């Protein structure tokens, strides 16, 4: 699976052409996309990677438990998780009561970068 790298301008053009019926929706239209490799790197800060590792290693039963494990406020962890869910790195499963159980989906990335052109790909393994 590849994470889609495309500028906002390219995304807008794609959406409009599909809406007008001049092009079919691409097979990867529903997947997460990033404007650049730099956007992926900005998301995967050391703090966010620590959060991902705690989810993977400790398997918390709720967002509240995860917040306690990492020593951060629950609203802060919830905002970060929302970004990670939107980007396809994490999924929130139903838990006990109203609790949401975070689960890491993407553990490995390979960046395929042409340093002379803007034809980058992030490959999820």
Tell the overall outline: globular
Strand content: 15-25%
**Structural class by helix and strand composition:** alpha+beta
CATH class: Mainly Alpha
CATH architecture: Orthogonal Bundle
Radius of gyration: 17 Å
User: N-to-C terminal Cα separation, in Å?
Assistant: 7 Å
Strand order of the largest sheet: 2-1-6-5
Question: Can you describe what's shown?
Answer:
- The chain has 125 residues and is an alpha+beta fold.
- It has a single domain, classed as Winged helix-like DNA-binding domain superfamily/Winged helix DNA-binding domain (Arc Repressor Mutant, subunit A, Orthogonal Bundle).
- Helices cover 43% and strands 19% of the residues.
- The protein has 5 helices and 6 strands.
- It has helices at residues 8-20, 37-43, 46-58, 63-70, 74-86, and strands at residues 2-5, 33-34, 90-94, 100-104, 109-112, 121-124.
- The strands form 2 sheets. A 4-stranded mixed sheet has the order 2-1-6-5. It has a two-stranded antiparallel sheet with strand order 3-4.
- Helix 4 (63-70) crosses helix 5 (74-86).
- It is globular, with a radius of gyration of 17 Å.
- The N and C termini lie close together (7 Å).
């Amino acid at each position: 699976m590849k994470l889609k790298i495309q500028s906002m301008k390219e995304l807008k053009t794609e959406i409009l052409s599909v809406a007008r019926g001049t092009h079919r929706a691409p097979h990867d239209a529903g997947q997460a996309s990033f404007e650049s490799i730099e956007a992926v790197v900005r998301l995967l800060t050391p703090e966010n990677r620590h959060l991902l590792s705690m989810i993977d290693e400790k398997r918390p039963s709720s967002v509240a438990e995860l917040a306690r494990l990492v020593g951060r406020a629950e609203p802060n962890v919830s905002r970060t998780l929302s970004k990670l869910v939107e980007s396809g790195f994490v999924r929130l499963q139903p838990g006990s009561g109203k609790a949401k159980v975070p689960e890491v989906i993407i553990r490995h990335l390979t960046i395929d970068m042409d340093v002379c052109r803007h034809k980058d790909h992030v490959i999820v393994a």
